[in-house]
Amino acid sequence: AIKQITTGKSVFKLRASQQNYAFNQYGIAGINIKNIMLEGLSISEYSTSGVTTDESINAGNYHIKNCIFTNVAIRFFEYGINFSSVAYLNIFDKVLVYNCTTGILIDKGSASENGGQTRFYGCTTASCDTGFNLNSVNTSTGSFALFGCTLSEGDTGLVVGEECIVYMSGCEIESNSIAG
Question: Model's pTM, two decimal places?
Answer without folding.
Answer: 0.91
